[in-house]
TrEMBL record, chain A:
It holds the Pfam family PMT_2. This is Glycosyltransferase RgtA/B/C/D-like domain-containing protein. Keywords: Cell membrane, Glycosyltransferase, Membrane, Transferase, Transmembrane, Transmembrane helix. GO terms for biological process: lipopolysaccharide biosynthetic process. It comes from candidate division WWE3 bacterium RIFCSPHIGHO2_02_FULL_38_14. It is a multi-pass membrane protein. It is found in: Cell membrane. It comes from the Bacteria. The chain crosses the membrane at residues 20-36, 90-110, 119-136, 142-158, 170-198, 218-237, 249-273, 279-297, 309-328, 334-353, 360-379. One of its GO terms (molecular function) is pentosyltransferase activity. One of its GO terms (cellular component) is plasma membrane. Its main location: membrane.
Automatic annotation (TrEMBL), chain B:
It holds the Pfam family Glyco_tranf_2_3. The keyword Glycosyltransferase applies. It comes from candidate division WWE3 bacterium RIFCSPHIGHO2_02_FULL_38_14. Keywords: Glycosyltransferase, Membrane, Transferase, Transmembrane, Transmembrane helix. The keyword Transmembrane helix applies. This is Glycosyltransferase 2-like domain-containing protein.
Length: 507, 563
């Protein structure tokens, strides 16, 4: 008897140590994936734009953001970061790596609250090697910060729901305060939590378990937290109201299709893969149905309260944004839906946890092999749709263009990454011509392109058109140039970044 | 961590489950949403293939809606206390079952805690010339119980019960199949419902006590769990519970009013219930396990059972369609139609299985819509209805139950066709003896599908390359194979055979080692002797010869060492 107890204790200690070892190992892999060769990739348009904004004054950032679709917190933080660490690719991206890495242990804790230790470890593994999270952890934008505050908000929300403790309510409110100034879509997290709270008003976190949590007190606590959050957000709302009508810098988004919905879930799992590979993988969808079938009808545990939150937190934001984009105004971009991802990873972990025996191990190993391949393709394929290799494009024009040529970038906002890298003495303009400090980008029409081209072409031997395809107006510009001028050369630097060289005026 | 214990089978059947009606409504909307995709005929590709798929989806939607309607309120009835001991005749129907099986049931009936009942053994073995019928009569005599024996087998089980009714007189009778052992309180818990003078049927669940024996019995039990769980509980609300042949008490007057048990149908219980409901009689389902029965032991028995049920249900659809029965309420019509149409699923499974193969061979597409658009309509429907299935059964149904049900498609088709064309079917009792063995012939369709499916996938890749269309259709074929695997698995003791083969291989390896040892000593006479004794060379050595050779090898080696 004594021996058996001792063996159990040794086993338990061993398992605990193994668990900790796996956590450390997973975090290390996550860190390597996020931080390895951080500056090797060219800055993308959005990153360059963030750096440009952050390099201005706080007041400028605020004013700029009032006309944009984003909130000022991230770029304000970046402003101070840049002052200390500079603007090299590696230096700025470390600011994304930090919240990207910090999210992982908090996701572990959140998942542990819902799925237990094994489930939490699986969530940690999935999130650490997630191509999607890795990609955004290596991009200096607000998305990893958004993921971090989302995870923290859910974590403390669950803690409050389970224990009703004040300290968790304070942490919860603090996370929300950061969240509401990080991204507008953080409000979806608060919506999910509110709906879940109302839905579970008469239910306990654990079915049949009458925990010492007074729902009325909880409600009062949440209302108090909401009041603080809204009060903190009020100045921004007021500023928005006051600046209404002073022009917009918001990107023009297309109405999403059902494909966007499917693609979002696909990208959450596989990251950014070449279009043909994406099509092939999506074509396996009947097997996904089979997996769902097997899982739903071969599971042993009832759906827990926490799982209901996971479902709501994963799917509600996505479908809500999709529906609003269809019926009101397009606002659907997969990266905006980052607040759905922590719960999505817990959702997949839950699936794996519920599998039994060897099937679980087989599933994890297969999943990790596929994800390893996906990460490899994401980082190496020139067909990655999210890659924007402006650095090499700029290197090319720097080496090829002379002061007698002109460099034209289109669409106009490509000027941000261009300017970040360009240090030459060839004249540079945008198509259509745009002064970024004066406000909104003029609409691309064939007439405007024609007029602006005539203006720019004069006195220049060659025109180096740096074009990012797939963006608003780029097809009009390319068509006009192709039909009007002799093409001397063309180069592709990533899937959508091209340089076309046209004959200007003859000398 | 929030983990709740799964309930035991008795608890599930007896559970007082109330699935959120908001969730049921949500599922309803996902079904309607999905159906709108099919109603958009702009999605149609090839009209024939689309038409076939459309029929299949209409059927699926009907079944899903039927399920929603059934479980809308599945709260179980409150137990009633017995006020009066009405006289009851208890029938144990016997048709060739082993003596020990019948004896167990007989003893349990005699031990029932009820003051006014008379037991009859309805021994139908003589009419079918079954060898043990005398044994059963002797058994009855031994226990002082009356055995009613027929000279013929007219009307099979229905005729047997009618004959029992003709030889008994109590106003109520309980029926037990020979392998369904009643609990002591069976009559005490069922008879109170007859306080209602219009109550004709009190049905209780069929519980399989051998459910843990293997894949087949587990799957069969889970199917029962679904039926005797949410479906039967839901039927109560609509006064649509039907007699399931055993473990029920019937009011004699109600049955006689409809002419007794119909003898021209092998689902006599189902049809008798329909007739009694048509005449305005009531029925009730007591969701408490009050008997312990046995699941089919092997695939052959399972097929017989499923064929019988499918044939009977098809008879109702084709020859006694509830829609045209004037005496039935709307709810009863829907319920009879819903239950009896279940077996039409065989045709739908076949359509769904064949279409991807046809697409791969012909490149003709049934639909024009994009995959992503279809997924958006399909997934909410698919997963919400399966989830509802889980919720309503408290997660007891598993993949194997659905797998076995879907892979029985050819049995259902055969039953439906035989009913439609009125091909006579014989009532076959599900055997009660534990038999295992080779039932691969029942899975021949499935093997053919696997072979043709893989040929189609290969052909698709060769002719169309690694295209999304080939991948999707190939994936559908794999999807179907995963379900058909249920029959393949149950058809043969694969594991046992594999273990045996492994054992043989190990022994052969052992022998090989032994030979090597001998060879190292260079003692060729042993080899020669072994080959001679095996009667055909080393390769054809059987197990017995291996032992001989081992024995000789060892002795000779020992001698060598001594020398």
């Amino acid at each position: 008897m004594q021996n058996s107890k001792t063996i159990n204790s040794i086993n338990s200690k061993f398992n605990q140590r193994l668990h900790i070892l796996l956590i450390i190992l997973t975090l290390s892999v996550g860190l390597i994936l996020r931080a390895w060769n951080l500056g090797s990739e060219s800055l993308r348009l959005d990153e360059a734009q963030s750096i440009w904004q952050a390099s201005h004054s706080i007041e400028f950032i605020k004013e700029y953001m009032l006309k944009n679709v984003h909130l000022p917190l991230h770029n304000t933080l970046l402003h101070f970061w840049i002052e200390i660490f500079g603007t090299s690719e590696t230096a700025v991206r470390i600011m994304a790596v930090i919240p990207g890495m910090l999210t992982l242990p908090f996701l572990y804790l959140l998942s542990r609250e819902i799925l237990g230790r094994k489930g939490a470890l699986i969530s940690l593994i999935l999130a650490s090697v997630s191509p999607f999270w890795v990609w955004y952890s290596r991009e200096i934008r607000m998305y990893t910060l958004l993921t971090l505050v989302t995870t923290l908000s859910y974590l403390f929300f669950v803690k409050v729901m389970k224990t009703g403790k004040l300290r968790y309510l304070i942490f919860y409110s603090a996370a929300n305060l950061v969240g509401i100034y990080t991204h507008y879509f953080f409000f979806l997290v608060l919506l999910v939590q509110s709906l879940f709270f109302l839905y579970s008003w008469k239910k306990h976190w654990i079915e049949g378990h009458t925990a010492n949590v007074n729902k009325k007190k909880l409600l009062a606590g949440f209302i108090f937290s909401a009041v603080i959050t809204l009060a903190a957000f009020y100045p921004w709302v007021r500023a928005l109201y006051e600046s209404y009508g002073s022009g917009t810098l918001a990107p023009v988004l297309a109405k999403p299709t059902t494909f966007n919905l499917v693609l979002s879930f696909f990208e959450f799992v596989f990251g950014f893969l070449p279009v043909n590979l994406t099509g092939i993988l999506i074509a396996f969808w009947p097997l996904l149905t089979l997996l769902g079938f097997i899982f739903l009808t071969k599971r042993q545990n009832p759906f827990s309260r926490g799982f209901q939150l996971v479902i709501l937190g994963t799917f509600l934001p996505i479908f809500l944004v999709y529906i609003v984009s269809i019926v009101y105004k397009p606002m659907y971009l997969t990266r905006y839906l980052m607040p759905a991802t922590p719960m999505f990873f817990i959702f997949i972990s839950w699936y794996i946890v519920e599998l039994r025996g060897k099937l679980k191990l087989i599933f994890i190993i297969s999943y990790l092999i596929i994800i390893a391949l996906a990460i490899h393709v994401q980082f190496t394929s020139t067909e990655n749709p999210a890659r924007e290799n402006y650095r090499d494009a700029v290197d090319y024009v720097t080496a090829s263009a002379t002061p007698r040529d002109i460099i034209i970038v289109s669409p106009p906002y490509i000027i941000y990454p261009f300017q970040y890298y360009y240090n030459g003495n060839t004249r540079v303009s945008t198509m259509p011509i745009w002064d970024k400090k004066k406000g909104g980008i003029p609409q691309t029409t064939i007439e405007r392109v024609q007029n602006d081209t005539e203006t720019l072409r004069r006195g220049h031997q060659r025109m180096f058109l740096i074009l990012t395809t797939g963006l608003e107006g780029s097809d009009i510009v390319k068509m006009y140039f192709d039909n009007s001028f002799t093409k001397l050369d063309k180069q592709q630097f990533s899937k959508d970044v091209w340089i076309h060289v046209y004959q200007g005026e003859y000398y | 961590m929030n983990r709740e214990k799964i309930k035991a089978p008795h608890q599930i059947i007896s559970a007082n489950i109330n699935v959120s009606q908001i969730y049921i409504l949500f599922c309803f909307f996902t079904i309607v949403f999905y159906f709108t995709w099919w109603l958009d005929f702009g999605n149609a590709g090839n009209p024939l293939l689309f038409g076939l798929l459309f029929i299949g989806e209409v059927y699926h939607i009907w079944q899903a809606l039927g399920y929603l309607y059934t479980i809308w309120d599945q709260r179980k009835l409150k137990p009633r206390a017995l006020k009066e001991f009405y006289p009851v005749d208890v029938f144990i129907t016997v048709c060739g079952e082993p003596r020990d099986v019948v004896e167990k049931t007989l003893k349990a009936v005699l031990a029932m805690d009820y003051s006014d009942f008379k037991l009859f053994i309805l021994n139908d073995g003589k009419g079918r010339d079954l060898p043990n019928w005398r044994d059963i009569s002797a058994l009855a005599e031994e226990y002082g119980v009356k055995a009613i024996v027929r000279d013929n087998n007219k009307g099979a089980k229905a005729g047997n019960i009618n004959n029992g009714l003709a030889n008994s007189s109590a106003p109520f009778f309980a029926v037990f199949d020979a392998d369904h052992v009643p609990h002591k309180d069976f009559l005490k818990k069922t008879m109170p419902y007859f306080e209602d003078p219009k109550m004709a049927i009190v049905q209780t669940p069929q519980y399989y006590q051998n459910r843990g024996d293997g894949f087949l019995t587990q799957a069969a039990w889970e199917q029962q769990e679904l039926f005797f769980g949410p479906i039967c509980r839901g039927k109560n609300r609509l006064n649509a519970t039907f007699w399931c042949g055993t473990n029920a008490v019937i009011r004699r007057e109600a049955l006689l009013e409809v002419g007794g048990v119909p003898e021209d149908n092998i689902a006599e219980d189902f049809l008798a219930s329909l007739f009694m409901h048509e005449k305005g009689w009531n029925s009730v389902y007591v969701s408490e396990v009050l008997t312990d029965g046995m699941a089919p032991f092997n695939l052959g028995d399972y097929v017989k059972q499923q064929f019988r049920w499918a044939r009977g249900s098809s008879e109702v659809i084709f020859h006694h369609n509830p829609i045209f029965k004037k005496g039935l309420s709307f709810g009863q019509k829907v319920q009879y139609l819903y239950s009896s149409s279940y077996y039409i699923n065989g045709f739908i499974v076949l359509i769904d299985a064949l279409i991807p193969i046809v697409v791969l061979f012909t490149k003709v597409l049934p639909v024009k819509s994009t995959t992503s658009e279809f997924m958006i309509y399909f997934f909410p429907f698919m997963f919400s209805t399966i989830h509802l299935l889980m919720l309503s059964t408290q997660n007891t149904i598993t993949f194997r139950a659905i797998q076995l049900s879907i892979s029985s498609f050819h049995v259902f088709i055969k039953a439906c066709l035989s009913s439609l064309f009125r091909i006579p079917a014989r009532f076959e009792v599900t055997p009660k003896a534990k038999e295992t063995g080779n039932f691969l012939s029942f899975a021949s369709f499935h093997f053919i599908y696997v072979a043709v499916g893989f040929i189609a996938i290969t052909y698709g890749f060769l002719t169309q390359g690694f295209s999304p269309s080939v991948i999707t259709n190939g994936s559908w074929i794999l999807f179907n194979i995963a379900f058909f695997f249920g029959f393949i698995r149950a058809a043969y003791p694969w594991k046992q055979s594999f273990d045996n083969a492994l054992e043989k291989l190990k022994t052969l390896l052992g022998l090989y080692k032994e030979f090597n040892v001998v060879e190292r000593y260079d003692y060729s006479p042993v080899m020669q002797y072994t080959e001679t004794s095996s009667g055909g060379g080393g390769e054809s050595i059987d197990r017995g010869n291996i032992l001989i050779s081992k024995s000789f090898g060892s002795e000779d080696n020992a001698k060598l060492k001594n020398n």
